[in-house]
Amino acid sequence: MQFTKLEIPDVVLIEPRRLEDFRGYFMEVFHEKVFRTHVADVHFVQDNEAMSTAIGTVRGLHFQKPPAAHGKLVRVLNGAVYDVAVDIRDGSPFFGKHVGLMLDASSAKMLWIPPGFAHGYCTLKSDSIVAYKITDFYSAEHDAGIVWNDPDLGINWPVTSNDAILSDKDRLLPTFTNIPSLFTFQENLIEKTEDPYKIQVNS
């Protein structure tokens, strides 16, 4: 596997090695020891999957508040999405900044998004399927988010506000400046849920 730190170094792009022959291909998409060595020492507790029928479907920007904060390992099983992670950690040199890139099924690249980030994506192809592993269980009580098209974030989404397809819930999310202070840069966020978290990205 290849691991690449992005503009916000705690967000890591992971590219599995694909072995192909006349039958098709084989690849490892997750290996606990390798992940802990090169990315983060975490324990995944839940796998989620979402299928979006139409191009221009936006899901996000979502996060869970402490003590149920979680990291995500995101991959696309079918189609393609523009995937975004926004740093919402107070004191971070990247506070309010984001990384955005395309993830698609053909490349099989994955994105690690640690706690302290809001996450969302926009579908680029119909019937796109996104799967992600998370480090803490879903909690409706701690579910939170930021409105996807907040101009203060400056995200260059591949769809206009008029054309985007969103849930009513996501349309009503607060702006970035209206969310409370929940995360602190370099704070051991998952430790609050008795799940140790330590970034160990190789240079």
TrEMBL record:
GO terms for cellular component: cytosol. SUPFAM superfamilies: RmlC-like cupins. GO terms for molecular function: dTDP-4-dehydrorhamnose 3,5-epimerase activity. GO terms for biological process: polysaccharide biosynthetic process. NCBIfam families: rmlC. This is Uncharacterized protein. It comes from Rotaria sordida.
